[in-house]
Design brief:
Two copies of one chain form a homodimer. The first copy, chain A, is built from eight helices and 14 strands. By secondary structure, chain A is α+β, with helices and mostly antiparallel strands. Chain A has two domains: about 140 residues, PurM-like, N-terminal domain (60s Ribosomal Protein L30, Chain: A, 2-Layer Sandwich), CATH 3.30.1330; about 170 residues, Phosphoribosyl-aminoimidazole Synthetase, Chain A, domain 2 (Alpha-Beta Complex). Chain A has a seven-stranded mixed beta sheet with strand order 9-11-8-12-10-13-14, sandwiched between helices. Chain A has a four-stranded mixed beta sheet with strand order 2-7-5-6, covered by helices on one side. In chain A, strands 3-4 form a two-stranded antiparallel ribbon. In chain A, strand 3 and strand 4 form a beta hairpin. In chain A, helix 1 packs across helix 3. At the A-B interface, helix 1, strand 1, strand 2, helix 2 and strand 5 of A face helix 1, strand 1, strand 2, helix 2 and strand 5 of B. Strand 2 of chain A pairs antiparallel with strand 1 of chain B, so a sheet runs across the interface.
Chain lengths: ~325, ~325
């Protein structure tokens, strides 16, 4: 293989085959993918969870992760928060002419590592190459299939009195990517929280109906996800500002940049709403895992302002949290 | 909505929601997709076929189709030739800042029409927007799930004496896209063959074990697909040059451009290998459908040159057909 990706590698011909044989299969090979058929045949499930996500994060390597890790975690997490046990992934890559083969290798290695950690197999894939200037290094789509193991998770299950929990500090991913874009100008020791949520979700499934809904607050952050939960709800969500975990480094960077950590993307945090009498158990289940050590109850479901998300500030006031209207940080995932 | 796509539409916030509500749901809504959950929950199957494809065709509108039609047909066809009955699709879009909303609407309408025709539902999706100059209008990934209804289709099932069939003239898609790129310089009345293959495949499934393998010869065309079939095979494939259907317009354009129609992509043609005593029935089943009217037996499986694809020319000679090594036509799909 040549050292940079050329258009030929997207041709579907010999160069594509060499890319598959020399790069993709060594990194990701498994009995289903190795067949290189157009469609993977896999054993079925009773009820499926099916999810897709495209990843255009820039830069594609950032402190704490890269687009490969992100593209597995993103889809795996979508399946997990939907109550599914992820099993199979597809991988569609759009490479820009000139992309270093060495970078591709590192990204595929990340995909491999994360697939192993989360117990999923990449069973089908596709690679296209576009001319220099018609892409930005690498874009990835992953779609995933999982067995539904925890049905009924939906914002419609939320009831007054429910507690809102988050598994750790928010905004790290968004701020880490932001800082890495402008590393000549800005310095800050923030690493992305990019991580799989399969263990945290599995720890909460046994709560049954007391587990109302879960989500990974990616684009738009915690605030936007909560606003989505409250859309058309007869309830409101009241956050306690002092309880929302934000790391000092993220907080400092946000102050400097005029950003709000509530809107900055997380890629490895779990937002969950649970029944009041399950909050303690949910918290201790989350905290029993390393990735949930800093889990916290951050708010409560009320009824005073149907459809709204409110923040009780540390000085005793209340403000309304609205949905992000534009792009705070474009291409964050 | 604004008249062009801006970065804000990829933010995951309010603009993304308005894009979904005003453009995507009106075009593609169905009970599963309308839930707008991260993962679609769907009823399961015994055995699944799972496939993915990214589409970067340029230009995204071409005679006979557009990237939307192509992105449904491409994945549906991959499932069908794998022996599956396609049921569910995911849709991941990467839009370039500045892409006209009207074009997006037309593309979504194509997706809708083609999904209806093929009986599939788009059940989950994702949209990202990249800065101007970091994409090329629109890139689409579709992944699909189907129930396996015709197991065992594989090049390994090919036996000496088997017949090679194609459902219609080859190369139309590749040449149509090529001509549309250079329409100021070149004129030619060639339309893409972009079409779904679900009916043709269903018509052949009843042949059972006598149906060895099927494929839609996209990137790299008929020649490359046959070379893939013969990889590591103890047999050879011998094509009869005079029998391969090529339309006069495609033939003329190829002569002019120095291209070989055997390597030009098809997006609505079926290549099938069947047992010798099933060839007549396969041919009449294909011809009974409008999309198979011009089906033909184009060659035979032999044993003289294991692993090779050969062409018996109209003047009585024989030449070896090799796999496409570079990109004959980049970004054809």
């Amino acid at each position: 293989m040549e050292s940079v990706i050329t258009l030929d590698y997207g041709s579907g011909g010999g160069k594509t085959a060499s890319l598959i044989e020399q790069k993709i299969l060594p990194a990701l090979g498994n009995p289903v993918l190795n067949q290189l058929t157009d469609g993977a045949v896999i054993d079925g499930f009773d009820r499926l969870v099916f999810s897709t996500d495209s990843f255009v994060v820039w830069p594609c390597f950032f402190p704490g992760g890269d687009i490969g890790k992100l593209s597995v975690c993103g889809t795996v997490n979508d399946i997990c928060v939907s109550g599914g046990k992820p099993a199979y992934l597809s991988l569609g890559m759009i490479l820009e002419e000139g992309f270093p083969a060495e970078s591709l290798e590192r990204i595929l290695e990340s995909i491999h590592r994360m697939a192993e950690e989360t117990g999923v197999s990449v069973v089908t894939g596709d690679t296209k190459v576009v001319e220099k200037g018609k892409g930005d290094g690498i874009y990835i789509n992953t779609s995933g299939i999982g067995q539904l193991v925890c049905p009924g998770l939906t914002p419609a299950a939320i009831r007054p009195g429910d507690r809102i929990l988050v598994s750790g500090p928010v905004g790290d991913h968004g701020i880490a990517v932001m800082l890495s874009r402008y590393s000549e100008l800005l310095q800050g020791d923030v690493r992305s929280d990019c991580a799989p949520l399969h263990r945290l979700c599995s720890a909460l499934y046994p709560l049954g109906e007391k587990l109302r809904v879960m989500r990974d607050p990616t684009r738009g952050g915690l605030a936007t996800t909560l606003c989505e939960f409250m859309d058309a709800s007869p309830c409101d969500a009241v956050l306690d500002e002092g309880a929302v975990p934000v790391s000092p480094a993220v907080s400092a960077a946000c102050d400097l940049l005029g950003l709000d950590p509530l809107y900055a993307a997380c890629e490895g945090r779990l937002l969950a709403v649970v029944a009041p009498d399950a909050a303690e158990e949910a918290l201790s289940r989350m905290r029993s895992l390393p990735e949930g050590e800093q889990a916290a109850v951050i708010g409560e479901i009320g009824t005073d302002h149907p459809g709204k998300v409110l923040m009780r500030t540390s000085v005793g006031g209340t403000r309304v949290i609205t949905r992000l209207s534009g792009a705070q940080l474009p291409r964050i995932c």
